[in-house]
Write a structure and sequence with these properties.
about 160 residues, mainly alpha, 2 domains, 8 helices, 3 strands, about 60% helix, about 10% strand
């Protein structure tokens, strides 16, 4: 284990962990800050873990920004035969990463590249759609076919 993250061996207080699991991140951050402010004799590892935990929560909130509707709409272009049942099924199967955050279902902002990587069904649909739009391109490489599609959907950085 990386020595700079050795504090991860310190477990979180049960209430903080519970709040995070329920997606009540604001309450979890508030409780962490309260624990840090009221306990100046915390063990070093626990103090470091709690300080890092607020950063981790903020990163999660920045990564899970899409509503279900936004994610569904962004998937309609590359997957023309998309329907709600398939979308919800992919969520249940874990192909679309999501979390409950402050009572709302939030989708991982870069879910599409992951979905295309992990689901042959979605990849084939997206490739077929791209071939229809650009029939001269070779179908030999799904990477070559999907990269422009993902860039158009602004889901893949241009430097990839």
């Amino acid at each position: 284990m990386d020595s700079s993250f050795s504090f991860l061996v310190a477990g979180l207080p049960e209430r903080v962990r519970y709040l995070e699991e329920k997606g009540l991140f604001n309450d979890a951050i508030h409780l962490v800050n309260k624990i840090l402010a009221e306990n100046n004799r915390l063990p070093t590892l626990l103090k470091s873990r709690l300080e890092w935990e607020t950063e981790r929560i903020e990163r999660i909130k920045k990564d899970y920004t899409l509503s279900q509707e936004e994610a569904f709409e962004s998937l309609k272009n590359p997957v023309p035969d998309l329907n709600r049942k398939d979308f919800e099924g992919w969520m249940k199967e874990g192909l679309i990463e999501y979390r409950e955050i402050e009572g709302k279902t939030k989708i991982f902002k870069n879910f599409l590249p992951n979905l295309l990587r992990d689901s042959e069904e979605v990849k084939e649909s997206a490739c077929a759609r791209n071939q229809t739009k650009h029939p001269r391109k070779s179908r030999n490489s799904s990477t070559n076919t999907l990269t422009p599609l993902l860039r158009r959907e602004k889901l893949l950085k241009a430097d990839t």
